[in-house]
Amino acid sequence: MPSTTITIDTRGQGLYEFTGAIDDFVTASGVDEGLLTVFVRHTSCSLIIQENADPDVRRDLQEFFARLVPPSSSPTMNWIRHTDEGPDDMPAHIKAALTQVSIGIPVIAGRPALGTWQGIYLFEHRDRPHRRNLVLHLSA
Length: 140
Fold this sequence. Notes:
140 residues, alpha+beta, 25% helix, elongated
């Protein structure tokens, strides 16, 4: 079965769409029907499928997660012990735990079976730029 690893360079917190890379991988595989698994090999970012038409959706999601899990420097987060890599470190792990690091997408007629406005995103939870590795695996 076809597998590959792709890399996404982030510039800090945010949503980074990579639907095009998924489409290219599925097309190149020649697989007509199957299940695509996307797995991110990190613990401080995650994967989501979300609307890709209105950028306000991405901004609102980022704002929601920032309010839900503020940096450990916030007085409301003074219970956090893991702060070795800065005030965004443990909150990034919490955000990743609340979302997912692996998603499955059906492939039908040689295409990912996404809805009209759905895009696939890496959700970066750290402030600094990172190089993120994602494993794509297509099972027929």
